[in-house]
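Feature request disguised as a bug: please show the residue count (325) next to Peptidyl-arginine deiminase in the output. Example input:
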Amino acid sequence: MEQKHNGIIFTAIPDESNEYYQPFYEDLIYFNECLNEKKSIADQLISLSVEEQDFHTSCFEYDDIWLRDVAPVVTNHLVKFKYRPNYLPDDQGRYLDQQFNKWLKKNDFEYVKSPLILDGGNLIWNKKDTVILTERIFDDNDDWTEEEIIEQLEWDLDVSRVIIIPAEEGDVLAHADGMVKFIDEHTMFISDFLGDHEFRYSVQEIIQEQMPEAQFIVVPSSYTEKGQYDQEIASAKGLYINMLESCDALYVPKFGLAKDEEVLRYIQQYTEKQVIQIHVGEISTMGGAMNCLTWYCPSHLLPSKMRRLKNQNEDFSMKKIFDWF
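Example output, currently without the count:
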């Protein structure tokens, strides 16, 4: 059996002319530069971009930054859900979904297609048999019964437990990756929900009803709505739980807040993986942080040509390699 190690972190940079993201263009470049400089030696970074950058790029036009939500969900295989977020006009969601599907096809990714609508940021997997989602999955697929949705998720994802938790009140995105994060099969980080103990306890109880062995580690937040960019979508500044995990590293958002270093040291206590801070400061005011901005594909699920070329990266520049695709 092939050893599961290494992988590629994918990001996306819209064209500089994109009106919505234009004020953050330099921040997005800086984010990618920081990630490229600080990333684990086991990880590669590839950004979908029409412009050549000082970091590795795959020349492709994808006019959005939130790769997590449109990309396939990673369990023991890749599962591509329909991307139809209710916070975007339907034609825009369809267009982004079609564009990303073209990129997947162009690069020969193999994945299961699900008939369900789901943002990738709304699914948390324990690397074995359990996934956690918010009840948004029911709202987005209201022509299905709840039982049908859960059965379909179990089938698509090859899991035996699908746990549905309530979304935070007023959260337009309603993504689970701003609420919980598994760090091993039974243990998870859980947000402090800005001191809303009653809500946190209710989420923990719902999880433990189906997963009695679950253990929780409360991750502090330092949320601030100051500088929120989009009137409809809450800022994610200060939500440290929105971290990216690769095979040997946890990438934790750095917001430029007083609590950044304290939370970094706190998280380091609970993992043997490298904990790497990546600056997401102003970008986070748009409503997402480290996990939202990235898609990590482990080596064993990469297309064979990417895997082969990745293994040859001592002799080839990944930047040049991706120009071949």
